[in-house]
């Protein structure tokens, strides 16, 4: 019986090729999205769950109370030892300082390790599960290192890496004592090199002071694995006493325990994926699959009248209703399985694109596992029964006598109002996606076109590394200035807008206490302002030999200090970063220090040569092709022990919005798929209407109706449905996109053209979909239409 049903199902499918193709395409696209979204959600939910007892691992974080509350994923360097002294029995504590883009040298070969070089304590490997494959000495001695398998192969080839010595940033020799298994992709602490914490004093003076409570750097992370039964809530109640360690500051710092399982989803502490985003992704995938199923139902029931005689003959020959029901379920199952096979192939093909869009590291081996297999099988079964049950019940329920006489009415194959409701729902979500696409696109254009307060074009950023300003670098600057394609050169800590912060306390000289706000220090020389095109609105530039005795501030500083004009700031002496003092000699126009997500805060620009980490080179646009190789040649000659790298400043700015650009691409894809599936639903609805109104169309044509008048019968139907969907979707889209824009301190305003564009685009595409069936019905011979009676 099953074999016979299978043969009939294939025959029916090939007889109605258009019907089968539309259903397979709709289901395949929606199931592809469902599979990829499931893979993506599964990946994000798996972060750092491979450690032993991850529910007992926490990260110490800081909630900073100034004028506003801010958050950082670190604590002061002195926190770890204080916790060990006070609560050592509560858990195991380890510090980890992670540095990116570190220069590693071995046997005159140089490498830049982008992901992470971590200085940490032996206890770190008691907290986290990073298996040691060979070697011993888990960083118990100074100047020792552990490296991963892939880096061992990269540095040493087939040589035995144990006891080999690598040089880090040309100032620390580290002996390799062990090889770790490569870290999995689903961790928020990727690294390839782990160096003994006892070596940190020679690498970073700030972190080398174990009792330092005078600042926080996001380089440092401090973790604890609590003992069984220890309550993190009760432990947190003891932390307020650590506030007293920060003497002389009006700012209140609250320390908290962040569960490891929540870190990936908490954007306050560098989390990369909010759980609400996962819910939105899951809902989008569910909507696309359900919409495709509903379209399948619409198209199937639209074909019902054509198959009514088939059902009548089968029933007359003795078939039971349950047999006919399973016949239609098998037909649906064949379509679903074919769609699933296409979806699996498309998912594998599109996985690299998903990696690029979502900034993840999925691979086929890890993505396609037992969980995905279970999800796929479950999806096949649910879609088959959901999409096939209703048409199966309708078709198998025809009375044989009425079916053979062709007396089956359209009312017997489904409620028309239900179909309209489904179409409205589909297009509501389509409108929300399209409006979202327009808003995100406009905001991205705004970020590229807005005046940021500086010139970001044709500026080359060359990393020098910390503590690298010497006679060679100064001499290099002079040589660069003699190049025809170089306009100016500046030493600086960072560019005007960057991820790196140097926030510190601030007060006017003579005041007893610090101001309630912090200032962002931009350590730079006198060429900083002309190189980046900052605009002086009062005073002058700093002198080349001022060396921290002079500074320039921005307009916001004037407002923070309740002054009426920039001139009032000139000549004021300030104290910052502990005991540093400088005189304000100039005021610059406000510029964006970070992305447009953040407000503009107080800035202080002053020359601190020991903190210069970058060389900023302003180039002539027309001579870049020859100037960039010349710069590399000069650099390599001066610093043969360093690796020359660079990045254009405007690329750094673009990287601020990498996540938004990825969101835009995903919304565009989902919008196209939603439009396609929505149009499939319209096609099914119009097909149903054509079957329902065949006799009416014939009568109207006999009575003299034109083709245009008949087309309007169908046109007004879809126009009303789309307009209703738009009216319902517009307020929801407005609210959702307003919430999204709230994440930007500087953003576009929602305009009517965004909503008008969505409805125009949808009407055009939907109109083309409807016109195919409606024109075909309008041009049908009325004699043929009336004979259907």
Automatic annotation (TrEMBL):
Question: Which Pfam families does its entry note?
Answer: FtsX, MacB_PCD
> Which residues are listed as membrane-spanning?
21-41, 278-299, 324-352, 372-401, 422-440, 669-690, 710-734, 754-779
Task: Domain (MacB-like periplasmic core): give its ranges.
Answer: 21-239, 431-616
Q: Which GO terms describe its molecular function?
A: transmembrane transporter activity
Keywords assigned: Cell membrane, Membrane, Transmembrane, Transmembrane helix
What the entry lists under InterPro entries is as follows: ABC3_permease_C (IPR003838), MacB_PCD (IPR025857), Macrolide_Exporter_MacB (IPR050250)
Protein name in the entry = ABC transporter permease
Where is it located? Answer: Cell membrane
Query: What residues does the ABC3 transporter permease C-terminal domain cover?
Result: 284-395, 669-781
Q: Name one GO cellular component term.
A: plasma membrane
Domain of life of the native organism: Bacteria
The record gives the membrane topology as: Multi-pass membrane protein
* Main location (coarse class): membrane
């Amino acid at each position: 019986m099953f074999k016979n049903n299978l043969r009939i199902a294939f025959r029916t499918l090939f007889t109605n090729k258009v019907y089968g193709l539309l259903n397979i395409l709709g289901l395949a696209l929606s199931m592809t999205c469902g599979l990829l979204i499931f893979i993506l959600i599964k990946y994000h939910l798996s972060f750092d769950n491979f450690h032993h007892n991850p529910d007992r691992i926490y990260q110490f974080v800081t909630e900073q109370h100034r004028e506003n509350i801010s958050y950082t994923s670190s604590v002061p360097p002195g926190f770890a030892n204080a916790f060990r002294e006070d609560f050592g029995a509560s858990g195991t504590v380890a510090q980890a300082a992670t540095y990116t883009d570190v220069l590693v040298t071995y046997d005159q070969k140089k490498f830049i390790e982008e992901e992470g070089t971590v200085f940490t304590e032996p206890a770190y490997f008691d907290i986290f599960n990073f298996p040691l494959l060979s070697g011993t000495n888990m960083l118990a001695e100074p100047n020792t290192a552990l490296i991963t398998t892939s880096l061992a192969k990269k540095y040493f080839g087939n040589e035995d890496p144990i006891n080999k010595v690598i040089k880090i940033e040309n100032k620390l020799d580290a002996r390799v004592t062990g090889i770790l298994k490569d870290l999995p992709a689903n961790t928020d602490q990727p690294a390839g090199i782990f160096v003994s914490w006892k070596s940190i004093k020679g690498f970073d003076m700030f972190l080398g002071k174990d009792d330092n409570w005078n600042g926080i750097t996001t380089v440092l992370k401090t973790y604890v694995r609590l003992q069984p039964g220890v309550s993190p809530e009760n432990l947190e109640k003891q932390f307020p006493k650590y506030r007293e360690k920060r003497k002389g500051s009006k700012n209140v710092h609250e320390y908290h325990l962040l569960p490891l399982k929540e870190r990936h989803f908490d954007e306050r502490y560098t989390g990369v994926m909010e759980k609400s985003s996962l819910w939105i992704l899951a809902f989008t995938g569910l909507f696309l699959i359900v919409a495709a199923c509903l379209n399948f139902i619409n198209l199937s029931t639209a074909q019902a009248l054509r198959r009514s005689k088939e059902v009548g003959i089968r029933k007359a020959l003795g078939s039971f209703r349950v047999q006919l029901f399973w016949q239609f379920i098998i037909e649906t199952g064949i379509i679903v399985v074919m769609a699933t096979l296409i979806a699996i192939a498309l998912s594998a093909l599109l996985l690299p694109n998903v990696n690029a869009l979502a900034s993840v590291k999925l691979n086929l081996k890890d993505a396609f596992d037992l969980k995905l297999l279970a999800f796929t099988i479950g999806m096949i079964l649910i879609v088959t029964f959901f999409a096939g049950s209703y048409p199966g019940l309708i078709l198998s329920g025809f009375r044989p006598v009425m079916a053979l006489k062709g007396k089956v009415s359209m009312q017997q194959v489904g409620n028309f109002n239900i179909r309209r409701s489904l179409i409205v729902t589909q297009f509501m979500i389509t409108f929300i996606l399209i409006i979202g696409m327009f808003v995100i696109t406009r905001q991205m254009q705004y970020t590229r076109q807005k005046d940021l307060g500086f010139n970001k074009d044709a500026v080359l950023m060359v990393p020098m590394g910390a503590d690298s300003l010497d006679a060679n670098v100064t001499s290099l600057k002079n040589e660069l200035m003699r190049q025809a394609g170089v306009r100016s050169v500046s030493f600086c800590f960072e560019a005007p807008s960057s991820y790196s912060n140097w926030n510190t306390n601030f007060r006017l000289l003579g005041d007893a206490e610090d101001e309630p706000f912090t200032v962002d220090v931009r350590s730079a020389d006198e060429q900083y302002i002309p190189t980046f095109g900052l605009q002086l609105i009062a005073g002058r530039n700093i002198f080349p030999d001022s060396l921290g005795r002079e500074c320039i501030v921005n307009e916001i500083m004037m407002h923070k200090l309740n002054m009426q004009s920039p001139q009032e700031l000139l000549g004021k002496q300030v104290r910052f970063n502990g005991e540093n003092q400088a005189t304000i000699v100039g005021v610059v126009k406000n510029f964006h220090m970070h992305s447009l997500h953040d407000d503009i805060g107080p800035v202080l620009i002053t020359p601190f040569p020991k903190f210069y980490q970058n060389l900023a080179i302003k180039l002539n646009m027309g001579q870049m092709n020859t100037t960039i190789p010349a710069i590399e040649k000069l650099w390599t000659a001066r610093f043969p022990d360093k690796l020359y790298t660079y990045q254009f400043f405007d690329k750094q700015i673009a990287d601020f919005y990498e996540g938004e650009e990825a969101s835009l691409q995903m919304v565009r894809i989902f919008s196209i798929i939603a439009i396609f599936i929505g149009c499939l639903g319209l096609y099914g609805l119009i097909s149903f209407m054509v079957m329902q109104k065949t006799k009416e169309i014939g009568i109207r044509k006999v009575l003299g109706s034109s083709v245009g008048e008949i087309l309007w019968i169908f046109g007004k139907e879809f126009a009303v449905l789309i307009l209703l969907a738009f009216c319902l979707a517009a307020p929801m889209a407005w609210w959702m996109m307003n919430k999204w824009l709230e994440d930007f301190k500087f953003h576009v305003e929602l305009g009517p053209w965004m909503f008008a564009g969505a409805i125009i685009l949808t009407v055009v595409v939907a109109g083309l979909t409807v016109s195919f069936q409606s024109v075909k019905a309008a041009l049908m011979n009325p004699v043929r239409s009336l004979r259907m009676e």
